[in-house]
Write a structure and sequence with these properties.
By secondary structure, the protein is mainly α. It has a single domain (about 5-230), classed as Up-down Bundle (Four Helix Bundle (Hemerythrin (Met), subunit A)), CATH 1.20.120. Helix content is about 70%, strand content about 5%. It has nine helices and two strands; from the N terminus they run αααααβααβαα. It has helices at about 5-25, 30-55, 60-85, 95-105, 110-125, 135-150, 160-175, 190-200, 205-230, and strands spanning about 130-135, 180. The protein has a two-stranded antiparallel ribbon with strand order 1-2.
Length: about 230
């Protein structure tokens, strides 16, 4: 195999390696390092497709490998991170055994929904490169990395809120809602506007709430962009 064909796949394997490392870091509750590992996975994921197109070395194997790497890095790793974040705190939570059981178990639905989303993406020809159907798995991983980095406590560990938040992220992944692609240069003005508005919220909101609001702004901004662009 030539280097031209090998390089994109090596980057995809880098994505997988960073995701595997992130899982190990979650067992040590090293949330900054966990976030950096997922950041490394996102960089590899962003580069592999672009380099494959630049070198004209797209392949069926690369497409499937990319989905497998994304599943580990942005589906499995966040699930284990949520489990490892919550488990040491369970004895301190004033909730019944059943509630605590479901709080621990619900995050493991995320890899299942991420797998469905990735399989659907591979099986469905994309009509536009500017939007994805459903929350992209890298954005899903980034959300949990930032949220855990803020070390949420208090009401965020209330069972209904915890379970609802996890369920909402999973549902967004498999939804048909349009989300702006972070890889398209044509989306830069929209992404920059959303990022600027979100950065302002960091000045006056608690970090956990700002991360959740950031996701909401991304979803609403993406929907607004899809409606605006459809009228052009």
């Amino acid at each position: 195999m030539s280097l031209r064909r090998l390089l994109p796949n090596l980057l995809t394997l880098g994505n997988l390696a960073f995701g595997s490392w992130a899982i190990a870091l979650s067992y040590e509750s090293k949330w900054l390092e966990f976030a950096l590992a997922l950041g490394g996975a996102m960089i590899c994921d962003w580069l592999d497709g672009g380099i494959a197109r630049l070198l004209r070395s797209d392949s069926a194997i690369g497409k499937e490998l990319d989905a497998l790497a994304d599943l580990v890095s942005f589906g499995v790793a966040p699930a284990f991170a949520l489990y490892n974040y919550l488990k040491p705190l369970l004895p301190t939570l004033p909730y019944g055994r059943e509630w605590r059981f479901w709080m621990v178990m619900v995050p493991f639905g995320l890899p299942l929904l991420a797998a469905w989303r990735l399989a659907r993406f591979n099986a469905t020809p994309s009509e536009t490169k500017r939007f994805f159907e459903g929350l992209p798995t890298p954005a899903h991983g980034a959300f949990w990395a930032l949220w855990l980095l803020s070390t949420p406590k208090g009401p965020w560990l209330q069972p209904a809120i915890w379970i609802s938040l996890v369920a909402a992220l999973g549902i967004l992944m498999v939804s048909r809602l349009p989300f702006l692609s972070l890889k398209s240069r044509h989306n830069l003005p929209w992404i920059a506007g959303i990022a600027l508005a979100w950065s302002i919220t960091l000045l006056w909101l608690p970090k956990e709430a700002a991360v959740v609001l950031g996701l909401g702004m991304y979803a609403i901004g993406s929907y607004g962009a899809s409606r605006f662009l459809s009228d052009e």
